[in-house]
What does this fold into?
Amino acid sequence: MSQRGKMAVKSMHDSLRIPGSQEDSVAAAKIATILDRHGRDGTRLVQILREVQDVEGWLSPATLSAIAEGIGWPRAQVESTANFYSFFHTRPLGEYRVLFSDNITDRMLGNQDLMRSLCHKLWLEPGQASEDGLVSVDTTSCTGMCDQGPALLANYRTITRLTPERIDEMAHLIRRRVPVGDWPSDWFHVEDNIRRRDVLLDHGLAPGEALAAALDRGPAGLLGQIERSALRGRGGAGFGSDIKWRSCRDAWGDAHYVICNADEGEPGTFKDRVLLSSYFDMVVDGMCIAGFAIGASKGFIYLRGEYRYLLDRLETRLAQRREAGLLGRNILGRGFTFDIEIHLGAGAYICGEESALIESLEGKPGKPRIRPPFPVTHGYLGQPTTVNNVETLALAALIAVKGGEWFRAIGTPASTGTKLLSVSGDVERPGIYEFPFGVTVAEVLAAAGANDTQAVTTAGAAGSCLAADEFGRHIAFEDVPTGGSIMVFDRSRDMFEVARNFAHFFAHESCGFCTPCRVGTAVNARLLDKLANDHGSPYDLDEMEKMHRLMQGASHCGLGNTATIALRDMLAKFRPAFDRRLHSPDYEPGFDLDAALSQARRMTGRDDPGAHLTDNLSAQAGEHPSEAQP
Amino acid sequence: MNNSFLLDGEDVPFTPGQTVMQAAAAAGKYIPHLCWHPDFTAHGSCKLCTVKIGGRFATACTTRAAAGQEVDNRTEELTAKRRTLLQLLFVEGNHFCPSCEKSGNCVLQATAYEMGMLSPHFDHFYPDRAVDASHPDVLLDFNRCIMCELCVRASREVDGKDVFALSGRGAKSHLIVNSESGRLADTDFAVTDRAAEVCPVGVILKKRVGFTVPIGQRDYDEKPISEKAVGKVADGVKETG
It folds into this structure.
């Protein structure tokens, strides 16, 4: 940053924090109000940090101290949480924070050109605040708008379907300091794009109908129906829902909790967003039903920070349900009490892992716990907790009405029911497809209008990558398991760039707890960059295989264990895309001698041929040593 | 029921509730580790103690011992994995053993010798990490931090102070101290704290005593860590029950 930039940012600091000034006491009063609203309860730290940042613009050292004092936590722990989540900043990043979604599908739709263009228009470098402290532009992990990208977050509000024209206008709006809330409203429009409906998306039930059916069945009858349905968790791992609920119900505790995992972070998945937007009553019914089954009276929805735009709408709907007797005390007049609180995440993929999610709910960095014990016995606040995917809960509501046998007749014997698929990439009709389990990949591709398809990733960045000869395989836990992210790549796409995008995603999202994942994901990202920069050799490809063998097995949680699956598949099935990047068939230096001199060139202000070490130029410089002198 | 399991084919007794690591240490068997210490809650993050139990990988420090378990420990496969983990730790930080005053007393260095690590293998990351010399009695050289959180646990569990915490995420993880200035001098840390003793590498260094014991006569100069650590730990486990 230039001296002028530093001054501008410094003056911004000063305006926020002059000890004893009026601004200072106003800020302190606002922080106190937020702390009081959360009962000065440290387990609410992620919510407190977000709300304070909304008011203050960033989380300064003094602000973190004030929060730590307010909740009675060691300051270092507050700082630890603040620095863990991507959406919290402990340095000023401007009044406008623009984050381009950087999933591979956004890249395929041209997000990199758009971001370069916006940076150019605003005179700034990605990741740095502009010199006047007004704005910063950066990338963020997939924001779940892959069917309507390229997308970005402007002060954490979602904007879809970016075009060069929208970027031009955005630069004007920012320079004229127009608040994000006053930007054109159609920019914020998010489509459902439902392309195929089956039993869930065509459920035809009124709000509370499923809940009433569950109450009629009683906890034991309800659990019996869930067992008969053979419902398995839709997050991807496919654990039996009845086993999870029964273990939780049977576990001893002061209180039991239901958590709806709406931290839909897998690149390329957006089906939970549609369920929350347009099928929210089914999800809430499902949560109440889970609470009824396990004996809980409190539930949380852990909503990913990228879906912040949904927060007010969902809160309103919960309030309406309380009014209508469908939530809260004495639900449907049947003596059952269950209420729900929404907790917003702050940009961390790892919080989709259930024990990391619970840590986050308790105000801590989202690092997965040692398991066992599992959340069903030792979850939120150490109490029995069931964590279920959004889709699983909606399906449980459907089963409560229609019964287990009915559900079991759909799909395959080992994978009952339907699955919501988020289809994006090279297809004519990206969006949500509800298919019975057992559908082939080819059938999904045909429905979505895919042509000349080269590859399909079937579980986002963390699962298999299939080549054309495998499209006859079936989507089911026993064949091709998926959490719902289906990304399609036609033959014009460079699978090397897909692999590189995924590797950087995992390096960015690794929580850093265990050695193999923290360092292994960074090594893989560096190896792929080395190939991209024409310094790769076959040896580097073997290194990635080796890293796969280490990380799968030695990592602490599912993130590290699955982070190299797609990469391994691509190395095996799309080898030419990697071989093309190899500069030499045997050995290539890992670094560029000439680039190593770049710092010296910058320091001396030189860029003449004599200051370079490339083959021709170094020969030249050797012939005319005098020219190399400054 | 016979309360024992097989570690590399040898019978190891355990008391119910013990982890594989605790039982092995009490029996004088060395399972490589960095973040585990008999006096503190198991962490399970360094993954050096990864063993194979019934054909599956698991960390010995977090897995409860069970009768009849068959645990592989010092096998070629596991040594190779541990060597790679050590190499990852070496390139992630800035570890220059010849100029480090912890050399010879460093658990990372000694474990690397034990595992036959001959080179860092991967390209160095060369992270930019500052040192903190603000405290009158202790220097913090973050360049050598391996994120084991032993100091975090010692300060919290024994000293009752919470002087240290791990901050950041992923490759940006880093150790911080409990003060607004970020300086150790502005915390209530004292050289007599247990946290001042537990760093397995050369991050937390007492001032003015660095070379009291000359290189060549230090802990792991005398004996390899597999012999040294086991004696120490076995005593510790017996003492703490």
In short: Residues 234-241 of chain B have pLDDT under 50 and may be disordered. Strands of chain B lie at 4-7, 10-13, 50-53, 56-59, 70-72, 131-132, 138-141, 164-167, 174-177, 204-206.
